[in-house]
Write a structure and sequence with these properties.
Helices cover 33% and strands 22% of the residues. The chain contains 8 helices and 11 strands. The chain starts with a strand and ends with a helix. Bound molecules: adenosine-5'-triphosphate.
Amino acid sequence: MLAFSPTPASALPSAPQGDAGGGPGAAPFVKLDGVSLSYGGPEGLKALSNTHMAIEKGRFVAVVGPSGCGKSSLMKLVTGLLPPTEGSISVGGAKVAGPLKIVGMAFQNPTLLPWRPLLSNVMLPLEIVQPHRTRLRAHKAEYLRKARDLLETVGLGEFEDKFPWMLSGGMQQRANLCRSLIHDPDLLMLDEPFGALDAFTREELWGVLQEVWMERRFTCILVTHDLREAAFLADTIYVMSARPGTIIAKHEVDLPRPRTVDSTFEPRFVDLVHTIRSQIAQVRNEAKQAAKAKAS
Ligand SMILES: Nc1ncnc2c1ncn2[C@@H]1O[C@H](COP(=O)(O)OP(=O)(O)OP(=O)(O)O)[C@@H](O)[C@H]1O
């Protein structure tokens, strides 16, 4: 039986208490405490406002919201690429004060290096991220085995010698996923990773990502516009308001795993997607009304 337990916006705490992100008492692995971000200083463009999140280790979280609400900005804050204007962020119990090493990232554009075969592309982070960089030469066979295992898991075992331009977009994104996981990150950040793919390939890759995550159980934060994708993959879905973005609802998705494309046709799955769609439509409308009122 499929089930989900939505938390409406009205039931969300404005402060972090009560948002433990999982089991009672478990310290969150990723924590955002009253985070705001303004581009161009405190008087600049406000992208995020008073955002609280608490994500337990090993959870799969999706963040959805209207276009421009600050989802990508949130990713940059959590990975330490940008400092918050207000509030604090911690990952693994430590305050984020600069770019994190324990993160793997994948974006819409796979950005594989065209002159490197797939296996060599997947190995790339090991040449950059410590301690792997120092260990690489002496432990090359072990790392190669790992890269090949990953490629095998995503169905690219036979393609390790191919160059990215010889492969389809879906295959490139599979390889990209392997590259983001080769250094065993504790946290995987995915920003619209399947946004450029056709619907069938996208659904196929949901299954691939779910399989890799179920096997490795890293903490994952996925930003997506695709509400079905969020419901398919996530344990928890955070819904954001229009800019300046803040969390307006949180849904726990208790669908059994592994989820399949058939799960997406179950009434409870459809209801969940519909509920989130309504919430986003409402905040978009409110933002439009506010903009109209300001202009008049
Ligand atoms: N480097 C920047 N300098 C100034 N403003 C920025 C910068 N990056 C983003 N913004 C603005 O901050 C707001 C939030 O942007 P962000 O990319 O985080 O939103 P998003 O929810 O990821 O958008 P989308 O869903 O369209 O990808 C937008 O108004 C955007 O124009």
